[in-house]
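Reminder to self: keep the SMILES exactly as supplied, no canonicalising. Ligand is magnesium ion.
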Amino acid sequence: MSDSAPVLSARDLRRDYPMGESPVHALRGVSLEVAAGDYVAIVGPSGCGKSTLLNLLGAIDRPTGGTVAIRGEPVERLSDRERTRFRLLHIGFVFQRFYLMPALTAGENVELPLAEAGMSRAERKARARELLTYVGLGARVTHRPTQLSGGEQQRVAIARALANRPALLLCDEPTGELDAHTGAEMIALFERLNADGTTLVVVTHDEDLAAAAKRVVHMRDGGVVSDTRVR
Ligand SMILES: Nc1ncnc2c1ncn2[C@@H]1O[C@H](COP(=O)(O)OP(=O)(O)O)[C@@H](O)[C@H]1O
Ligand SMILES: [Mg+2]
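Structure tokens returned for the bound complex:
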């Protein structure tokens, strides 16, 4: 991996979903480069391929055609097992529905990816507390997801996504389940993450969230129709 490479470089990504006689052409050739420190919002109507693109960028899914390189590493060349490991160490994901483990405390949820990466118990307890404090939840470490508000659960999900210091944080509609006030707090948190050096790619319907990004990519019908630097 090379330091001079962009954090993310996607070329001519295509994704067809086989659906009997008429496959869905969800992505029809998308190219995107993201430099370290950037903050990119991806917007567009429902069904235009935003989640499909994000899943390819994060090596959750494999393209029908095209390539994705993260920190110069072409991820489609990795085996499934190597890809899982690569994701664990280099990519953070935040989803609309949080996906916390209900039986675990906030701290234990954040510890999971640290444990998978092989960190010792004492170290990961300390790191989980530090991460939860960073997202404003230092007083909620032993709460379970059902004992937390939606906004607090999303903060736990963000702390978990940041656990192994990923090169890239990918978020799919992260404010989609939150009320306006909590959404505004989330937008402020993303700005702070980015100011502290996290590279962000955020799919969103939320105009306020898109307005906070440094760059806005508009999608339609499986393609990018505009890519505008705002800051
Ligand atoms: N697993 C799947 N199987 C078949 N079609 C899918 C699948 N996932 C998404 N699609 C279709 O691909 C298109 C893009 O979906 P998606 O990426 O989820 O859009 P967005 O996130 O912009 O709303 C839509 O037409 C959707 O119905
Ligand atoms: Mg979507």
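Points to follow up:
The first helix runs from residue 50 to 57.
The helical segments are 50-57, 80-90, 106-116, 121-134, 150-162, 180-195, 207-212.
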